Amino acid sequence: MQAVIATTKPGITRLVTITALVGFAMAALGKTWTPAELMLSLLGCSIGTFLSAAGANALNQWFERDRDAQMTRTAMRPIPAGHLSAPTVLAAGIALCAAGLLVLGITVGMTPMVVSLACMLVYVLAYTPLKTRTALATLVGTIPGSLPPLIGWTSVGSVAGGILAPGGVSLFVLMTIWQLPHFWAIAWLYREDYAHGGFRMLPLTDPSGVKTSTAIVMTSVLLLPATIWPAFAIPGLLGPLYVSVAGLTGIGFLLLACVMAAKRTRPAARRLFFASIIHLPLLLIAMVLDAFLHAFA
């Protein structure tokens, strides 16, 4: 069982579920609920998203099993390490995806189910094979990472304004831009490993690191307004608390990106990577806290 869990990339699955629940919370605070309705939608959104993400990650590990065996950081994953057979992981992935979609469809409706299906298809059938063909795959890879907040947002129903509501779109954009410097910092740290696996990442075609660090700085500049935009897209729930956290953390992240660009060393890239995984939770915590304070003030 532990090996099966490992194929679902639990850390990523948790993050996907959390971002979906943030989208749910930001939309749900504008709706009047009965306790039963709220509990059903909350559980349906969280369980359905969790199962869907777990299944997609398992399918990704099945798809990349041979390349994982070539890289130090992934060689001990269940399939290359011999803990599970490829057919077992494939079956588990399909079952988890189907279960997740079924839960979403039954409990919160067709729209979040379709958004979740889009996440799976782009991640498994587009991003995963493209990683060995073009460095632009990183841009495609932001899509399945950006859609989960919309799973949560649309789980609330039509009262939230649907998939194109400004609040949901602002969360999608925030997640899209945040992922780019995050991914490129990882790719810089593990560029030799990715080369062994046959993946085409930007740092592999950029030995000096100039292009990679420039891309990181440019997207970090864009990240600052992207993190503040939700305050304008959801004005009734977000105010000075969120804007202050978004502004301060965004400036701090940009400064670390500039250090990375100036030094282009592994320690600088590692600091930026860890900053990215601190930056997002701080934003989401501040967002939900500010929204609750406004909703129940």
Task: From the structure above, extract its key features.
297 residues; single chain; Tetracycline Repressor, domain 2
Summarize the SSE layout with pairings:
Layout: H1 2-7, H2 10-28, H3 35-63, H4 65-68, H5 86-107, H6 110-130, H7 137-146, H8 148-154, H9 166-189, H10 191-197, H11 210-233, H12 240-263, H13 266-295
Helix pairs in contact: 2-3, 2-8, 2-13, 3-5, 3-6, 5-6, 6-7, 6-8, 7-9, 8-9, 9-11, 9-13, 11-12, 12-13
Q: How would you explain this protein's 3D organization?
A:
This protein has helices at 2-7, 10-28, 35-63, 65-68, 86-107, 110-130, 137-146, 148-154, 166-189, 191-197, 210-233, 240-263, 266-295. The chain has 13 helices and no strands. The protein folds into 2 domains: 1-160, UbiA prenyltransferase (Tetracycline Repressor, domain 2), CATH 1.10.357.140; 165-297, Up-down Bundle (Four Helix Bundle (Hemerythrin (Met), subunit A)), CATH 1.20.120. With 297 residues, the protein is mostly helical. The protein is flat. Helix 9 packs antiparallel against helix 13.
**What number is the mean pLDDT?**
93
CATH class of the largest domain: Mainly Alpha
Structural domain count: 2
Distance between the termini: 45 Å
Instruction: Categorize the overall geometry.
Output: flat
Which stretches of 5+ consecutive residues score pLDDT under 50? none
Just name the CATH architecture of the largest domain.
Answer: Orthogonal Bundle
Task: Give the biggest sheet.
Answer: none
Query: H/E order of the elements?
Result: HHHHHHHHHHHHH
Q: How large, in whole angstroms, is the Cα Rg?
A: 19 Å
CATH topology of the largest domain: Tetracycline Repressor, domain 2
Q: How big a fraction of the residues is strand? A: under 5%
Assembly type of the chains comes to single chain
Structural class: mainly alpha
CATH superfamily of the largest domain: UbiA prenyltransferase
Helical amount among residues, as a percent range?
over 70%
Number of helices: 13
Count of beta strands: 0
